[in-house]
Design goal:
The structure is a homodimer of 110-residue chains. By secondary structure, chain A is an alpha+beta fold. Chain A has 5 helices and 3 strands. Chain A has a 3-stranded antiparallel sheet. In chain A, a hairpin with a 7-residue loop joins strand 2 and strand 3. In chain A, helix 2 crosses helix 5 and helix 3 crosses helix 4. Chain A binds a DNA duplex (30 and 30 nucleotides) through helix 1, helix 3 and helix 4. Chains A, B: It comes from Citricoccus zhacaiensis. Chains A, B: InterPro entries: Metal_resp_DNA-bind_regulator, Tscrpt_reg_PadR_N, WH-like_DNA-bd_sf, WH_DNA-bd_sf.
Chain lengths: 110, 110
Amino acid sequence: MANLMTEMLKGTLEGIVLQILSGQPAYGYEITARLRANGFTDIAEGTIYALLIRIEKRGLVDVDKRPSEKGPPRKVYSLNALGQDYLNEFWRTWSFLAEHLDQLRNGGSR
Amino acid sequence: MANLMTEMLKGTLEGIVLQILSGQPAYGYEITARLRANGFTDIAEGTIYALLIRIEKRGLVDVDKRPSEKGPPRKVYSLNALGQDYLNEFWRTWSFLAEHLDQLRNGGSR
DNA sequence: ACTGGTAGATAGTAGCACTAAGTACCGGAG
DNA sequence: CTCCGGTACTTAGTGCTACTATCTACCAGT
């Protein structure tokens, strides 16, 4: 059975990660941990890595590889100008959706 | 380039349609028209029909076929008890997501 | 030597919205 | 009478996204 949250995250998870990166640069493992701390306990690690590669290919983030004291080198992602534009667009779309859903929920379907 | 809204609708469009049906029974064409009137101008007709068939197969709605004065017979969908449960669950999930996104947006990522 | 925590990559799967094309029915314009 | 436009529904195929599962790699402590 498909999970409701799984489907709802499609499209929004990307914005969530970009928003996190807009605060400060971060690497994958850190982002996953931050998400979990933030209540999104069920998001798989692999999902985040795949997403990061995707937004990197789209040129929304810059990457800086630096050695870690523990384990393999980290890939530190930071939001660039294009990413910021995309993030703004994301929030505009989200606001539209959230507004209309609220409206629909409160009987305002007429 | 993938549309932001398209991806964001995944998972939520289903809830939107169920919410519309919770007010009163409706048929596909009508639902499409209502969505368009509600600001969702870019939702394709085919999408709604596919979605309706899906939720019918899952047993979330009951179907009543009745002749139309214009064109082929309408398939009138109405929300049943299982659908209502699912809708409640949908709103709970949505609220969680909306809350956490708001929190994240207002610098509350720490 | 082994376990556990840190860090990332990837092949395969399922679900969803979209595109595009079609069927079917009817009324009115030409 | 034929054609067009509006109503109403169907369906095959596509692309994108999150998930599962598994793998590599590095290091510290026992």
